[in-house]
Structures
1.
Amino acid sequence: MIRVLTEETINKIAAGEVIENPASVVKELVENAMDAGARSISIEIKGGGFQLIKITDDGFGMSSDDALLCFERHATSKIADIEDLASLTSMGFRGEALASIASIARVDLITALQNGSGTHVEVEGGKIRSVTAASRNQGTTFEVRSLFYNVPARKKFQKQASAATAEVHKLIVTLALAHPEMGFELISNEHSVLKVSPASGATFTQQLSTRISDLFQTSFLGTKLTAKGAEREYALEGILGTPADHRMNRTGQYLFVNRRPIFSPQVTRAIKEGYGQRLNEDRYPIFVLHLTVPPSLLDVNVHPQKKEVRFQEGEFIRQFVKTVVGQAFVGQAPIAEPVISFPETRESAMRESWDEPLTFREEPQQAPVLTSYEQVIGVFEHYLLLDGSTVDGYQPGIVWVDLQKVQQQMIYQSLNQPQPEGLAQGLLLPLGMELSSMEVEEFPNRQKELSRFGFSAQCSGKKSLLIEAIPPFLDETDAIETIRLILQSEEAFSPLSERVARFAVRRKKSFMLQEALTLWRKYKSLNSHEAVTWTGMHAIENFFK
Ligand code: ADP
Ligand code: MG
């Protein structure tokens, strides 16, 4: 039997697609405030947003007719027909968000076109409950309570309030970088978490630079490089970190296209290309960059949440972005770490990226068995060279054992034990570490992981940590960056233990013979023959011929 769904059901289904979590509600409401020409937007949440999300703006407000209409599905003031999409400048245009939010929460809207006389609309589960006159200054306030109260399935899968808060925080940071000319305040459980007033500055880059200093501690983009260029109707403008400022993941990358936060592997790659050989293959530059693209050459309709875009002139953009980023380094010190050219197989071994698993892709057809009569030829950088004819399964030739990978594998294994023993290594002098406000929030969520890895750290003061013990495989100098890695890593990336293992060993460029042999023996004793994954094992036949 075929049925036509009720409006209420349609809205709930749409809500399931658009409204994933409290952060998506905040995003829709803040974008509406931006579209309404707001100069300052205040975001208040309670209980991660599940209890309350309250967005107040000083935009142009709504008439009482519009205040009722805005909750209708496909009610929008932003486009009239399909042609308008080509020249779209607003954030929203589908007229779906408010209808969706109102169908899964209790919403209060108080809005006024001019100071004094306004309208208050109460909506619950998609139904208008009351419309009354209300007094407020020009602008709009949306209060969203009991999110997902009537969608038990969705509610069950929600993260904890603290994780939801962190997500909202991340979103506001991103939007604040998208719009330095606007003021933002985020209040969570009655505490002001973030507050930035409209950034001053004669140029956009100056405003952006002010905004960055207001938002982040100095270590993020402390030394700033400016990128600025325009060609045809395209423009790229923003702030770059120096090559030394790199990160182990993409957390320090903020890319905006026509003021929208965008995820674009294509553009990100072009930015990295602009850094050229100043940055190692497996490092991520940090940046806040704004790309302007003619709206008619951009398709933002790829995804309802508009995270992804499609460029009509992708190749042009790649060249343009790479060139402008490259120009930022003119006059800077040349390449920090020269890249040596290696024979093909080794080079591909060096090139392995962070997102790939620890094992090699090209494994030998038959896993050779290690024997105790292996002949050691010597050590070259971080490779142990064995005579292939003494390694079962190999032809005469040289077997290269990548000791970096062996060590990584061993750290990885030890971190993955249910209860790693004797990991924490007390420090004589505790290390101090500054935290960003985002990291302060993440700390309680990650404390268990940190101690499992062998860290012992405590908050000291509002924005700093005191590190009292570190894992034995880490240098003190790397401890802070590793904690940062743990606080900032996103679930989407490879397992944390793997990332920490890679990170701990990354700087170990060469080994002494004795050290290499000890490591290799230990590795073999811990890994039964079958368990040797051939990580780091590489036969390069005829290398010396
Ligand atoms: P869209 O943003 O796609 O148009 P929404 O459902 O988010 O759809 O909003 C519907 C309409 O409500 C908007 O087109 C706008 O006219 C009005 N509106 C929503 N929020 C605000 C606000 N903060 N200030 C003024 N008008 C608003
Ligand atoms: Mg909208």
Note: The CA atoms of residues 15 and 100 lie 4 Å apart.
2.
Amino acid sequence: MGTLHVMDHPLVQHKLSLMRNKDTGIKEFRELLDEISMLLTYEATRDLPLEDVEVETPICTCKTKMLSGRKLGIIPILRAGLGMVDGILRLVPAAKVGHIGLYRDPETLQPVEYYCKLPVDAPERHLIVLDPMLATGGSSSAAIDFLKRRGCSNIKLVCLLGAPEGIKYVMDHHPDVDIYIAAVDSHLNEHGYIVPGLGDAGDRLFGTK
Ligand code: PRP
Ligand code: URA
């Protein structure tokens, strides 16, 4: 079974509370998502492998460590996952970026796929799927299915907020995938929105409502 990592760091919780506030405007909402994404990725990359290297400092030669092995790929789920990309690229500037376009049908709540473009070497990379909202879990799970069908196997999921039912759904369908999240909320309402949540992440990020 995958592990659920809830990042209850005070800075993350403070920034998330600001994002939940309905009066927080688009500029601040974007900045906060960017900052929290960076902090979540810091945790999600904790187990990246290191190798010994030799470096010459101004004082002497020393043995020190650098990242080794597979490179990173980040896969935002459109649209709201886009708001998490820049923060992560500041931490890992050489990461490649793939995009998966999914929207949730408002009636059935089922994910509908409309776009996919992945780095050609995605199966050789550590992949981090990004979506701020894990509600029913349908979208994240479909994106992970999609990657697996294309030969990818080394996958983590980084989200901002989740509902217990969505987290269970992803963990049941993808027991090999660890989830990194800032908070687990109470439940979903009758429209499939996370309660208390922060509303529609895509609309708040792009000003579409
Ligand atoms: C939102 C959100 C997730 C999905 C979560 O996207 O960004 O992708 O819903 O819901 P789920 O866990 O029940 O699948 P939405 O479908 O609203 O599309 P958008 O990002 O384009 O607004
Ligand atoms: N998508 C969102 O943007 N917000 C929710 O609460 C659920 C799905």
Note: The two ends are 38 Å apart (CA to CA).
